[in-house]
## 1
Amino acid sequence: MDLAVSTSAVIPVSVAVPLAGAALLAGFSRLLPRWARDLIAIAIAVATTTLTLILTAASAGGPMIYWFSGWRPSAGMVIGIDYAVGPLGAGMASLAGLLVCAALVYCWRYFDSARGRHHTLVLIFLAGSVDFCLTGDLFNLFVAFELVAVTAFALTGYNAGYPGPLQGAINFAVTNSLGGMSVLMGIGLLYARTGSLNLAQIGQALAGRHADGLVVVAFALLAGGFLVKAAVVPFHFWLPDAYGSAPTPVCVLFAGVMSELGLFAVIRVWDTVFSGLAGGVGPRMRTVLLGFGIVTAVVGAVMALAQHHLKRMLAFVTMSHLGIYLIGAGLLTPLGLAGASLLVIGDGLAKSALFLGVGVLQHQRASVSELKLRGRGRGLAVTGVTIALGALVLADLPPFVSSDGHALLVDAADQVGLPWMEIVIAASVIASSGAVLRAAARIWLGWGEAESSDADPGAADDPGEESEGRPDTAGAEEQTQHSGEQPGQQRRVPLTMLLPPLVLLAVGLGLGLTSGIEEHAAAAAAAFSDRTAYAAAVLGTRSGSVDTGGRIVVPASPAASAGGVLTDLGQVLAALCVAVIALDRRARRLRRALAAGTGWLRGLHSGLVGDQVTWLTAGLALLAALSEWALH
Amino acid sequence: MSVLAYGVVAWLFLIGIYGVVTSRNLIHLVVCLSVAQSATDVLLLEIGYRSGGHAPVFVSLPAHPGPAVDAVMQALALTDVVVGAAVTALLLALVVQVHKRAGTLDPDALRATRD
């Protein structure tokens, strides 16, 4: 009992710690020396990660509810604001904490003159993410959403000295602000219908009812707003601009945490609020979500292959993965959600390692262009191994944890009767992994033709040489400081930049080797998607919770896992083949045909904020029409 | 009254988005974004409104104060105003930087930096 009390005290502390740390750094950054600022920020990130890991473990037995100031619901009526902690949300928060730790350690030497503001922003970002994952209140969810968003805008434009980051930050801020407005309107409409802001209470109020027009519009606005953040087609146009121009350590947070939070919110809101609607809404909503997921996965993969700007390539890889997560979560079964969660962890770690590896290139070679870096990887062997390994993990190399997630996802799709979903997922994964492997082979092995961008019309979408070669502010400062020497050719890569990506990959490997991780994920996902048990726990009407204890999903059979390993190895091989074909001289005609065939798609990614907002509005309208079909 | 308010919400949101889409000036674009945002505020206030209700201030009330408008929605709108102010400030700061670097406020000019 004592233990339970002390762990529930951890819940608010896990948000308060990074917030307090951010305030401390913001207030005293001038008084503190550089190393002290770095140490404080890292210590706070480590503390937050530890706290959220404790929560993940402690909430495995059942949801932990924390009421601020003890304003508990009375007679099933919510009057306060709650945190409803489950293993899935807490696990997501832990991932955020871990990636923030890695990014901060990496920053130690990456920025030559990190001002205190960077760390402050990163810590607020972390606090917002943790808040987002734990909260059980719709409005609190919105506040956390905006907190994460505003810090992310600022971090994207951190190198405001260059046009690239400026464009990225402006596009990002405009589109995501509109997404935030959409979310808030949806919240307002739900409140108008149900008189509550608490997820559990709204869910109870809507349960068993038929959705009317107001509820349909509320869902479309809420989901649309969150999908902007999740960068789902056609809401995704801001993503390559923002990821391509943000400082590389920040990209880690964006790719590993921020976009996934958007999907997390969609599923959280669906599971707790809308899934109880009468009229068999689940299967039709599944069709809608899967449609969005498939398009996103495919578009992201195709665009990733067309990029030569490494950060933009990883941005599209991220987007393709977001589509796959949406497929997993959109199956609307606990098993699919479990698979998607493990993929979020596994791919998130791998993508972060890749971004950090690209950061080393940017720092040492002052370029992130695959073509300009051809054959210039020598001397950066560790980074080469990191990137190659990361790319293979993206293709679900066993025994990394993403391969477990992939196996669960495929099982879940089979159970729902969509076995062909496996092909879509495999194709996207192979293409995006192949793109990264192609870049690695070109940079470290010197494969492919010498710089002849006319042979690759795909370069048209990439930012030009000017902005490509332009490093982050830090790099630029560094260059001016070291202007006497060749830009970094002789400098040794600091250990703080080599180790974090390797540690992240090792964590992915360790989790993959943990026995029973699939069962844990399935149990966490089952608890997450059980609306009645969630409502009972929050509202204090303990009716359904006993019943749910035994309803944990059947874990995937070992036989299926064995088949999954073979599939994963096949994917890895296929990704290697894609990389080879993409570089082979004889396949030039094929490449040209492909590039011509996808030219219209690249043309859509114009980077103009007006176009992006037009697509966003059209997407909202489409989503509203589909929601009407699915819910009404 | 109520229909009019919802009409205003739709009008503000759409005209704001139209302004963002067609803007030829970044400052104009940021202001249009604020216009779209004011739609959310009007919506929230309208949802919380009760005709004849007094302001949700519960000190030194008369004996029979009658109904009050919904304080929760006002709190939401207030938070939204704060968020909007932060975003607008940030965007304007970025716009100042754009003008410094590129010498123009045309949103399409940013594209020139990419190719």
## 2
Amino acid sequence: MTAETLLASLQLSIPELILAVGAMALLMIGVFAGEKSASTVTGLAVAVLIIAGLWLVLKTGEGEAYGGAFLSDPFAKFMKVLALIGSITAMVMTVGHARSAQIDRFEFPVLLVLATLGMLLMISANDLISLYLSLELQSLALYVVAAINRDSVRSTEAGLKYFVLGALSSGMLLYGMSLIYGFTGHTGFTQIAAALTAEGRSLGLIFGLVFVLAGLAFKISAVPFHMWTPDVYEGAPTPVTAFFAAAPKVAAMAILVRIVINAFEPVVADWQQIIVFISIASMLLGAFAAIGQKNIKRLMAYSSIGHMGYALVGLAAGSMAGVRGVLLYMLIYMVMTLGTFACILAMRRKEGENVENIDDLAGLSQTNPFMATVLTVLMFSLAGIPPMAGFFGKYFVFMAAIEAQLYALAIIGVLASVVGAYYYLRVIKVMWFDDAKGEFARTAGELKLVFGLSGLFVIGYVLIGGPLGSAAEAAARTFF
Amino acid sequence: MLSVFILAPFAGSLLAIFFPPDQRGATAWFAGAIALLCFLVAAGLYPFVTSGGVLRYDLAWLPELGLNFTLRMDGFAWLFTVLVTAIGVLVVLYARYYMAAEDPVPRFLALFLAFMGSMLGVVLSGNLILLAVFWELTSIVSFLLIGYWHHNAHARDGARMALTMTGTGGLCMLVGLLLMGRIVGSYDLDVVLTSGDLIRNSPLYMPVLILILLGALTKSAQFPFHFWLPHAMSAPTPVSAYLHSATMVKAGVFLLARLWPVMAGTEAWFWTVGLAGLSTLLLGAYFAIFQQDLKGLLAYSTISHLGLITVLLSLGSPLAAVAAVFHIVNHATFKASLFMAAGIIDHETGTRDMRKLGGLIRYMPGTAVLAMVASAAMAGVPLLNGFISKEMFFAEAIETHQANILDTMTPYGATLAGMFAVTYSLRFIHSVFYGKAPEDLPKVPHEPPRWMRAPIEFLVLACLVVGIIPAITIGPFLHTAVVAILGASTPQYSLAVWHGWNLPLIMSFVALAGGVGLYFLMRNYLATSIEGPPIFRLLHGQRIFERVLVTLSWKWARSLEQRLGTRRLQPQMRFLVFIAIAAAALPLLLSHYEMPPLLVRSIDPAFALLWAVGIACAIGAALLAKFHRLAALVLLGGAGLTTCLTFVWLSAPDLAVTQLLVEIVTTVLILLGLRWLPKRIEDTQESELLSLQVRFRRLRDFLLAITAGGGVALIAYTMMTRPLPETIASYFLERAYKEGGGTNVVNVILVDFRGFDTLGEIGVLAIVALTVFALLLRFRPQADSLEAPEQQRVQNAFDDDHPDRNEGDSVAEYLFVPSVIMRWMFPVIGMLAAYLFLRGHDLPGGGFAAGIAMSIGFILQYMSGGTRWVEERLRIHPLRWMSIGLLVAAATGIGSWLFGYPFLTSHAQYATLPIVGKFPLASALFFDLGVFSLVLGATVLILIALAHQSIRAPRAHARAMRSGKEAS
């Protein structure tokens, strides 16, 4: 690698470099300033993320870097912006809760920055090796983050479970990758696609494909690799769960899209079946299993499983419209989820304890009408009822499925969303129709800001949908 | 101009929220003004829609998706717009007086306006998707309106049921509309309306029909989805008057009429729509007779009338469509007024129970007269509007449309339903206004305020005027609407009261007479009976609905989750492995896998034996892992050794050496770690006593393991029998000596070709060692493993028993011979390491191997001499070894810069030392030295960290705990 290509590569990955250097610098600051520096480090971490995001939007060009292992294209940019927004928002939401959730350690923001770095690299990965490394960077940071509250049995259990199952799925992913490499002789996505076009598919490759998809399905918590999600969502401290629910999903979905559309484009019929199966299973499980939940974090876990299923409907279509649908779905999903988690974080009794049962929301419409309204809007949106943003997310993916003649998939999807609507409505019913049990403490400003903006987005999507749609379309065009 | 219909109500709704709650009048004025504005605009637009004119308003929204914000007003939409806005004005006026002072009226009116906007959106949408959006919006807002009095449990249930039903139906309809758009290729209503043949002939026609009907029938409360409407009656009466007479429930029939030109006329349409309509018509009317609640009666009558409209639309003849549109208007007029009258009665007497009411004509004669006229219109009495559309219905029912049994039955069903309608209308009037005066009413009945009655007066007047001179009053408007639906096929029809003596008239009279007779027959029964029709009341739609809902969604979901979901890690992992196996097996089974032929070359018996031992060791390790860790570890070492020997056998001595050394070091380190784990889990049960469940579980796990292992082996086998893809191995083989100056390719790769990677790797190794050290530094063993091992305890006890012995003597004696040997071994091992190191460039060995070998020497010292003994004599700090190693390696790399080469370029030649002889001296050797130093340092550091655990006093542990508590 000559100096010029190295320089060009570095230039394309400046946002990632900012995060990497930033994380190390923050770690140093934390180490030397001691435990008390947690809030300073958090603030600086947010700043680092914002700088990286600005650089990404304003300065970063497009092209290949590091010998084709890293790719900067409109798709990557779109997803990276989403992931950064998700991380920043989640980190802002932790500010007021760090102490009560016992995550006020300076390592916490550093780990989040590292996880975000992993996500960005993953979104840009154009090679099995860089995919695996970035995925692990993200995952390892998340394993630690899930167990960050060492004094809580639930949190450590969640972290351990996540680690063990995650390691298993990483193993599968790696195994699949080695099979793919063995049968095509390449690790680069482009070369794999070329080899597949030239030589056709072989059984070993299908094995590899299955295992790779299994490993990635774990990361987006799609059925049947969803087992960890409810436990980890419930066990991890709520700010951590908020982080888990948003940005990592975006990144994992991005790499899933890239790998099937880019590398496995020649064997579309094979992966389409798998994606359709995963999608249907996720939608149904997400819909039915959520009904019985009493804990709102667990509910959101199942809800996220279901939503990943809907997003995969778009991917199953395998078309430009489908990918655009996935992009918009992830955008809308992320905003809704962050808003909802901001509300969940605001569920704190005046005595200072955090509550997380759905019944604790009873009578919210009387005690805190603003939050009740926002949460209602978010729930309607999550249920996919027009004219909220969630409806459009579903609309785009179902449209793509219908255009790809996957009628059964679309119809099952709609039925699942009907069932899903039921439990979202239950939350609304509890808020508006049940008698209040007690009031929540005053909501912190940053949470109000987050859920307010999220609610505004969900309602106002009707108006801003056009530009967002064209942005997603431009991003989706990368592949077609 | 059309956007006013959407913007004004929604903007008004937003503003209305900000009115103070006690400003009933002002808010009502405001809302009324908005409704009136919409009405006036609609009226002003009339000239543009006559004779098939269409107004359009387009706003590019997401044009590339075929999603435009298109509003479209033709005659039919115009008629509906006028209906929605006009009745809206009247209902606002009514609500001003109806709502109590303590009700939050601004919230009500905000929702009301939002509803009006949504409803206008449904009516005016020029795009199928937009229509679905507004459709769902009406469901949501109506949910909030029905549940307005949320302190009332019944209202909450009703609201939820209404939303569940109509929302679900709406989503089904959305899919139907999407499919329809797919058939047509556009979502634009204008395009859709001209593609009738395309839709009817499409193979997707059936699914489209069913899905859209699901939407329309749930919204219009048609059988079997009718039961939500009576429960929605717990809404405030203005809501019922608006939503459940004129607007929301009409959305369903609106859609049917809207799509009538493109979907009607097929047999499937006739049967599905007709059957639903006819059963609704009859059942609704029949149920209405037996209601005791005034609004319940009206609700069922609404259901029945909607059924009538549905039947008309099902027939597929243009004349029937005309009648349907006409009846939509008529029904809205008289039913809205009746709801308002019922509201007044409820408001002024405090009850809606017909068993308690009676003789009210004496207290509120004005209201009584109005209600009587309206209900006469509902019954279809001549000279009122209901009569005319009902006549048209009868006339159409007689006509033969399709030769089947349903068509034959229609006239009889119609007459019967007409009879029932007369009965319940009569009952409404008779039991409320006549008979003996009411007793113990919650309030003293009296006439309502002047302006509360005004809306009813207006509507009743409309009933009368339309009923007497239809052709002049409603005629042109109706024609405009009908032309918009039917276009060129608009039939000739005459709106008149008198058509001469004909069959429909006779049917009317039969219905009237029969209805009156029926009422007087049942009067006494009805006056005292309980709510609901006989027999049928046992079949509570609501109860069934709830039970189904609960079973489906709650019980099944929960049991499913309990069965399939688990919070335990082991089942989760088992599931994951199982899924992986299944996922891998599926393509295998589907694609007729053929094993590549097994090539048996001469297998050496010794090698086979070696592998048999290795496999036995591996299985043994897995078996014992839970029960006896030490044994498992030893067996694991055996398996590792087999691997090493295999490498030797297959001519890879370099790998073998490295593997062997790594094997030894890791085993020893794990051994040291084992000290702090419980020694073994006692298997309390004898194997005979194992329960069946345990046996089954073990068998299952065993099979799972066999399958997974077999599968992996199979894949590996397939992989290895394939021709190798082009690899880079030959590249390195060719260039190792030429460019790297060494014949040990692995080592040349490590220190030369991939020297940069190695530098990174040793950096990582250093970090790992530091991390292990840092982690173990704070490690405190669990209390239950603090105790000294059994053997040490026995030995110490022995020492204690003998006064001439010091503690520890036994151990020293015990280990005397081994420790001497081990100490002597140290220089030998050092020599070996040096040997491995120096020959590394050409032959198996190298810095890594040498470093590991040297650390084995240290491990032996620790084992023989004990921690204290070693550390007293340890002169060099491992951290220094590590840092020096890293620096040397980096310096070698940088050194090549001095000679103008890229980083880490190496130079190779041979040198001769006395005694040692000739050995390869590449500049890479210094790099290798760095590797050696670092590996040695890292291993020793980890060793120290582990070893220190044994000398850390438990007391320190306790003290740390205490101080930790005090600090916190």
